[in-house]
Amino acid sequence: MHWKIIILMLFIIASLSLFSGCLEEGNEINEKPNVEIHYPQNGITISGLVKIFGIAYDLDEDDNIEKVEINLNNSGWIVAEGTINWSYDWGTYHLDDGPYTVNIRCLDGKEYSDIVEITVIINNPKTMESDSHKWAIFIAAANYPSNNESKLGNGGLNLAEDMAAYFIENYGYSTANMYILFDDGWIRGDNGYGNRIETLQQRHHQYDISYAGASKENVKIVLNYIIEESNRFVDSEVFIWLYGHGYGNENDEYTGGKILESSAVFLWDEMISDREFGEILYDLRSEKTCVIVDACFGGGFADKTIYNFPTFFLMRSNIPNSGRIIISGASKFRTGYASTTRGPLFSLLWFEGIKSGNADGYNSGFREMGKPPIFEFNKDSKVSVEEAFHYASYLLRTDTNLEDYSKMASQINDQYPRRGILRNNKDMFLGD
User: What range does the domain containing 365 cover?
Assistant: First the structure.
């Protein structure tokens, strides 16, 4: 009997040990996670569209960060993008100048971190009343999916900055009215193919232009701001440039799969269709607007198919309007081409025609294919938006160095200075 009692006691002791272990494991103390703000720093002055970002980490070393939340000037908690590496784009355009608090916290699924608080000073540039009724936005999404082999590099950003500098130096555009939206707001090494290095706002640039990521929300925020501001002036001038991957079927040589579909361009986080773009621009009243969309199968933005034939009326984007010139680098049925270091081909040719003056005197020719001037009196020593388009179209069609790209069939829908068959032949000269 004694041996039975001994076995029973051993069994009870072992069971209690296992149970005790479970109790101890279940009662393990959870360490609070931690969160840091890397930009902006406490006390600095900010303006425009600001990317707030930082890191969060779990002190239990299992990287279990469920979410990061941000609170702007005690306005309520909002979930930021990302977890371990997090960010939030803050549009400050309509806020009064002065100090604002930014609070950050993170959650590891059990507990919130301590709240990190900084104070920043908002000081947005004021609208100049003299010779400043011009706005420009350059949008480029080039390297969005980490597993995509068709990255477009940093060429779009490089071209956007070149055009922006030219507009500032030659067309009287104010840096306060100039916006560049690129990728997710980060510069990546290896010409866009490497890891994130620094934000656009941290990076040194020639002019004090407003930079941000090319997310759909940012595009809407900035365009709506430009529309609201430019609508205040009867002489406003608006320039919009959009570049990225277009939506279509590259294996369909003849239609790109776009016969009964809208054109669309990939932004950083999602696509934007020509109709969505038209809805955003619906309230724009500027009577001098130029829109260039340089993307594969982008002709739908200009309400064109190919060789200047119009889009079926039920498929139109409604972007073209009185006082507007809408240009697409490639037709609705064709692919476009780009250099990963210099940018999209059509825009490069268009801009070169303006900057060099070589496009002076070019006209539409047959079906807007471009035709060089025959006589010197066709030139006036300055280049219009239309002349630059005809110049680029002509080079794509005739230059033997570009013969691999000759089928792009760039499109233009010119309703400047007004729509309809009775409009005069006045060209649009930016900056005038």
Answer: 134-414
